[in-house]
Design brief:
With 250 residues, the protein is an alpha/beta fold. It contains eleven helices and twelve strands. Strands 1-4-5-6-7-10-11-12 form an eight-stranded parallel β-barrel, surrounded by six helices.
Length: 250
């Protein structure tokens, strides 16, 4: 298996870098009014890959914070994956042309699976599916609505599509610093051939240590947001732990 990737997260609302609790747009904390500067800080800290979400776009169904995303792309050299408001081929093509390394399709993956298949065919390795689950069922439209489709059921629809990764978010833990849902993420990873990235709740170095245990071997990475912003997770410690594990596995 490939080494675990730790993705720092930048969530965009009104052009600012924020964190929500449980995806509630009313429970918002602004951590940086300059997302590009925040991205540069993450790159300087040694992170290899950045995770960005256009929160306003997720609700609007189209890109809203494009200016902030473009500023990030101008500022950093590391690859960036982007989700939020990406629901048609034109938007996918536009973001990839602007320099986004990988787009994340969430709501449209449930409602328009053919879009995922076509995009993955046209842009191999550059399309991921975002599966955001509430009590095990997929939520859409910025998590405002919950479907009757389970996370594994949605993931299995794209097994043969050439999707690069599935980003699995446990909404009940997102922004709450309660720890990753390791059991749920392992279950999804074992149900799919597609690499799975854990998201939601990463709280401390203990979560990184847990991710590096043998039973998590099928988890490709994890996304960290609030824990990095409020200092609960030290970037140097986390990245050093991952590097040490990577070297010992070689």
């Amino acid at each position: 298996m490939a080494p675990v990737i730790l993705f720092p997260a930048i969530d965009l609302k009104n052009g600012e870098c924020v964190r929500l609790v449980h995806g509630d747009m009313q429970q918002v904390t602004v951590f940086n009014s300059d997302p590009a500067a925040q991205a540069a800080d993450f790159e300087a800290q040694g992170f290899d890959y950045l995770h960005v979400v256009d929160l306003d776009g997720a609700f609007a169904g189209k890109p809203v914070n494009a200016e902030a995303v473009e500023a990030i792309l101008r500022r950093v050299a590391m690859p960036v994956q982007l989700g939020g408001g990406i629901r048609d081929l034109r938007t996918i093509e536009a973001w990839l042309a602007r320099g986004i390394s990988r787009v994340i399709i969430g709501t449209a993956a449930l409602r328009d699976p053919d879009l995922v298949r076509e995009a993955a065919r046209l842009f191999p390795g550059r399309v991921a599916v975002g599966i955001d689950a509430r009590d095990g069922f997929v939520a859409v439209d910025g998590w405002a609505k919950t479907s009757q489709t389970s996370a594994p059921e949605l993931g299995r629809r794209f097994e043969d599509a050439g999707v690069a990764a599935v980003i699995y978010t446990d909404i009940s833990r997102d922004g709450a610093l309660q720890g990753l849902n390791i059991e749920g993420t392992i279950a999804l990873a074992e149900a799919l051939a597609i690499p799975v990235i854990a998201s939601g709740g990463l709280a401390s170095l203990a979560d990184i240590e847990r991710l590096l245990q043998p039973d998590c071997a099928r988890i490709a990475g994890a996304i960290s947001g609030r824990a990095l912003y409020d200092g609960r997770l030290d970037p140097a410690e986390a990245l050093a732990l991952i590097r040490t594990n990577r070297q010992s596995s070689c």
